[in-house]
Specification:
With 82 residues, the chain is mainly alpha-helical. The protein is built from five helices and no strands. The chain has helices at 4-13, 17-30, 33-36, 41-56, 65-81.
Length: 82
C-alpha cells in the first residue's frame, strides 16, 4: 500500500460530509465491474437486505462514520504490519 493513502484518507476525512460522499461515489464508479461484481453478488445482496431489515426493525444500530473510519484505519494498519 502506498504510504500516501493514509494521508489521503486523513485529508478526505476533513472534507464536509457532502464532499466525502461525492468522493466515495467517484471512487466506487472508477472501479471496473469485474473487480466488484462476482459470483457472490447474490449472497452480498441478500446480506445487505438482511442488514437493512435488521436496522429497520431495530435489531441492529448504525455506527457513527467516525467510529467506522477509526476501525477501518486500525484494521488497515494491522494488515500492513503482518
Amino acid at each position: 500500500m502506498s504510504t500516501n493513502i493514509p494521508n489521503i484518507f486523513e485529508e478526505a476525512m476533513s472534507l464536509p460530509d457532502g464532499d466525502r460522499a461525492s468522493l466515495v461515489h467517484l471512487l466506487l464508479h472508477s472501479l471496473q465491474p469485474p473487480n466488484i461484481i462476482s459470483e457472490n453478488s447474490i449472497s452480498l445482496e441478500d446480506e445487505l437486505a438482511k442488514r437493512l431489515e435488521d436496522y429497520d426493525s431495530g435489531q441492529s444500530q448504525a455506527s457513527d462514520i467516525k467510529d467506522v473510519a477509526v476501525r477501518v484505519q486500525q484494521a488497515i494498519k494491522k494488515r500492513n504490519a503482518q
